[in-house]
Amino acid sequence: KSRRKPLPALEEDHRMVAREVRSRVSVYCTADKISQTELVAALVARRGQLAKVTGATVTNQDKFQWEDDLLHLQCHGTLEEPVPLTQLRDVFFFEFGVTVFWGFEKWREKQILNDIVRAVSIGQFVEAAADEGSGDEDEDFDFSTADDDFTVVFSAQEATRISNDTITLAFNNIKNWKVKCAISYALAQSTKLGIFEERISTHTDEAIELPKMLAATGKITTERNEISKLIGRVFLEKCTVNLLSTVLDTPEFFWDAPDSLQAMYSAVCEYLEMEDRIQVLNARFEVLQSMLDMLRDHQQNEHSTHLEVIVIVLILVEIVIGVIEIAGLLGWLGREGGK
């Protein structure tokens, strides 16, 4: 009786993909910026521990190198045995403060963020908070307001695409880290943009109470100093978004890349409605700026009115004093007393 020959590794992977094996992609925006030199130094210092931290062998750990604003870790195989192609792990660090994970468990993602990213971050968005339930004195980040999760489906029949927060990755792209990079760039930019959308929403909620107060009472009781601070914060956010526009442009990574990668990047950006969201964000900035300018003009007019009243009072006092002095010179005052 002849024994059935084992399937080649490639055919096994095809079978696995045909069963719609699923994975996950997570995107974390944790800071304004990640220091390139400090991240490379941190990875080099932890080179012997990366396999334990990532749960896989980092195949490119001999050459940690930034490509413009991107550093990529490719993790193949586990500590015990190789993993199927559908479970290959990748980490993409972006200089503008975003980290994208492919194929990792959530607890490993948090471990990498706390052990590596945290130490090299500049301008962290959220404060560290103690993990109360673990009894551990170490601090963990709370990334609940700065992360996005996507499901990945590996397919041998469909082309690589994204829809309904699900990324379908074609079988022939599973080991192509550049395809994952093209998708990751768009996801990272979208998450970064989401941070500023939340910020401007907070400022809008804070500022909208002032026109309501003016409409209800006819005056604003908020001190000029507080309004000036709010105007300053909005101005800083607007400057940051203007600087962010360089981040939201098509990355230099795609300049020398095949057109298919840029097409994939553009398709994901279109799915995430990047251009529309940027236009909406700029429009909200303009509305907020106009509202604050109106409030500032209102307060300046009130201040000018107060100054005018003070000037008028001073003029009247001066007139009264002048009349008294003239009356004294003419002898109109104190004449009867002198007799």
- The coarse silhouette is elongated
Characterize the biggest β-sheet: 8 strands, mixed
Q: Distance N terminus to C terminus?
A: 151 Å
Count helical runs: 9
User: Based on DSSP secondary structure assignment, what is the total number of beta strands?
Assistant: 12
Uncertain stretches: 1-18, 127-146
Estimated share of beta-strand residues: 15-25%
Cα radius of gyration in angstroms: 32 Å
Query: Number of folding domains?
Result: 2
User: What is the string of helix and strand elements?
Assistant: HEEHHEEEEHEEEEEEHHHHH
Helix content: 40-55%
* Sequence of strands across the biggest β-sheet: 3-4-5-6-1-10-12-11
Tell me, rounded to a whole number, the average pLDDT: 75
Question: What oligomeric arrangement do these chains adopt?
Answer: single chain
- Which structural category do the helix and sheet elements fall into? alpha+beta
GO cellular component, one term: mitochondrion
InterPro entries: DUF155, RMD1/Sad1-interacting
Keywords: Membrane, Transmembrane, Transmembrane helix
Pfam family, one: DUF155
